[in-house]
Request: fold
Amino acid sequence: MRGLTAKEILGVWEVGQQQMPAERALTLLSTFCPQTPREYLEQLSIGKRDALLLSFREVLFGSQFSGMIRCPHCRSTVEIGFSCADVRTTVPSEQAETFSVHVGEYEFNCRLPNSTDLLAVMYQRSIDSIGNSLFERCVTEKRFRGAELALANLPPEVTAAVAAEIAKHDPQADIRFDLTCPDCSHQWAAIFDVVSFAWNELSAWATRLIRQVHTLALAYGWRELDILSMNPMRRQAYLEMLGE
Ligand SMILES: [Zn+2]
Reply:
């Protein structure tokens, strides 16, 4: 695991801009772990993927997060601040990726969703169809009193209980925090999405770099590659001379 050069940040940003979040997560991870085969990264459970992304984010931007979120009730902006430790769960080293779940007389064999699953469903239009497809992919056997069952024959409350059980096996994939709006006192559980956090921060960094290249190229006529290869402190010193 390592940080990124200015040139790499722009490279990742260019690729990721055209991608859906599930692909972006893999682009970020492949950049962070260049020696790890892409197939291996695709097979990581979403919780393991997010734990790695959290480490990546920590290397790039430090361990503190701050941001703004809208209150879903009054639409006021609420400031949030937390650390990587606050959103990192303890994953047992021998986390079982396949397991069985029993709900009454129903019995299921399940595995944890991974990036391959998310890539397979990312173009589906509704949350319901995404949920059903993920369920089909990750619940490998469904039985009632020993007989095989189709998803369509499962009562919705049983399906929901199985989905909740799968989520419990991969806590890092579903991080929420309790928030209270200072304006209207509304309380809600906000989802922490490490992919969009890391991506937004990287995008902001890339945009800043492009602006710096623009300013320096305009003032001194230097090439983009030379400006990006420059030590960031020296780049900043020149920018300060230009009143930036
Ligand atoms: Zn509010």
